[in-house]
Write the structure tokens for this entry.
Amino acid sequence: MARYTGSVCRLCRREGTKLFLKGDRCYSAKCAISKRPTPPGMHGQARAKKMSEYGMQLREKQKVRRTYGVLETQFRRTFDNADRMKGITGDNLLSLLERRLDNVVYRMGLAATRRQARQLVSHAHFTVNGKKVNIPSYLVKAGDVIEVAESSRSSELFKRLTGENAPMTLLPAWLERAKGTLQGTVAHLPTREEIDTPVEEHLIVELYSK
């Protein structure tokens, strides 16, 4: 499967905002966008030009796509699915992206970044309702139980998530996971108010509606 393999810090600089693609580093002084807030490339420090309406719509779409680590074709497919659903298309789009298994694993604190979560899911380190799932784009449902597979629990990566010294994770309201455990539950499907991704989704809807 095709994936972006370049520097993820360049993506943050290109979008002009933190996309939190490198875990703890994004919260430290080493964050690239904190040290070099200009776009990458030789023309990055040129005087900023007024962005067109299309440019704003495109940048918003790219920001969301890169935040969730989704390639263009898959993102467009997700948008089309959101458009066919009942309700507000922009809200549906974000809900579908949040419900991806790799994102849920990341949100539960079982992986440091979405990229790491995607790799772990692909290597079948997680189960959904007791069955191994290795598809990062798998959409979870209300009541689903996500758990580290029994065969993967001896990994040092997961051992550090258990016990009294396990790191705390601030979970969104639609997810549940007790500290020090390797299991979480989808309490309910996410609403727009429960999704903290800083995006103006109406711009994406306008872009694809042309």
Remarks:
- The first helix runs from residue 8 to 15.
- DSSP finds nine helices and five strands in the chain.
- The beta strands are 126-128, 131-132, 145-148, 175-176, 183-186.
- The chain has a mean pLDDT of 86.
